Amino acid sequence: MVRLKKLRMNKKTFIAIVAIVFVAFNLRPAITSVGPLVGIIRDDLGITNSQAGFITTVPLLAFACFSIAAPILAKKWGIEWAIFFGLTTLLIGILLRSFGITSMLFIGTAIVGVGIALCNVLLPGFVKQKFDRLQGVMTSVYTTSMSLFATIASGLSIPLVFNFNLEWNGSLATWSIIAVIGLICWAPLLRGANANRKKERSSQSTKGKLWQSPLAWQVTAFMGLQSMLYYSMVTWLPEIVQANGIPIATAGMLLAYMQLSGLPMTFITPILATRMQNQRVIIVVIALFYFFAMSGLLYIGDSLLAHVFFITLLGGANGASISLSLVLFNLRTTSAGQASQLSGMAQSFGYLLAATGPILLGLIFDFTGSWFIPLVILSLVIILLLIAGLFAGKDAHVFSEQQLSRG
């Protein structure tokens, strides 16, 4: 009987891990697949660079508007059903924007953002709920899975158009397949949703105090600034390197390489972070990687080898910063409910800040015809990231012992 019980537990754990991984597979492709296609979409639909930048900004605005609602849905339905609803919404959005019509492109992209927002916010809390003692490892697993498919999506977007004659909308529609698989893998977890709902409700009592925590706002600032850097690069890196003299096909592959080069840092950062008393050393390394990468993109000319080197640094900084942001939600809280609350707050306000990045850079480029000023602005963002990170990286919880005891 003991062996059978252990076997059942192992089976449940395996199913949960597979489900987490396949949800993570869906959290970036619907966005990163757009970057290499921005020029094609712009020319086909006759829109401006700033409007093209808005394609990436729309999901970020959806993240900002709906991230705060994710913990409320988890409290009402259970975290498992809320994530399932997020995946379903993502699938609907992918299909709608694949019609190839300008209005449906933006509407579908907004719906995509809503679906991803729900999963983004609730997955850290689910990991804390199911794998509290292994949260560093599991955060590494799902952030690496997320980044891996972000890489695949960036690399396949152009080949799907030119080698398989799918057109840009057909290329974007391809990622609905992963959403369907994600729903199938997540469905077995819905059986245990009701049993966890009471625990989630009991851990929501400190919600009002979260907004009064300076550390919560510092984590939020770090999340938002790193997201601004990431999504700005996902949107405009192909255009930046093309302006440096790199061909369009190679530019798309360099974007995929940026994602790929970040995988080792994505995986190792949460594991290191959970073993450190504070995370400030990691934050300084991230800032240095970003500074060297931005400086390189400004002055390297058309050297492909130099582009590869500096984009490697950029990928490492991106990978480390996003995975650190996600593990901070768990390290700075004491329960799954609190982790979901902090995740919702940080991603709501953080992505509102991040949403300004792609569209602002597009507007400045339209006005100046050069990527020099946009890259300088991103360098200033890195300084702010370092400052916010040094505060967010200190060893503390967003709720004091007194707040927790009163809660």
Automatic annotation (TrEMBL):
Pfam family, one: MFS_1
Transmembrane spans: 54-74, 81-99, 105-127, 139-162, 174-194, 215-234, 281-300, 306-329, 349-365, 371-392
Protein name as it appears in the record: MFS transporter
SUPFAM superfamilies: MFS general substrate transporter
Molecular function GO terms recorded: transmembrane transporter activity
Source organism of this protein record: Salicibibacter kimchii
Membrane topology summary: Multi-pass membrane protein
The entry's keywords: Membrane, Transmembrane, Transmembrane helix, Transport
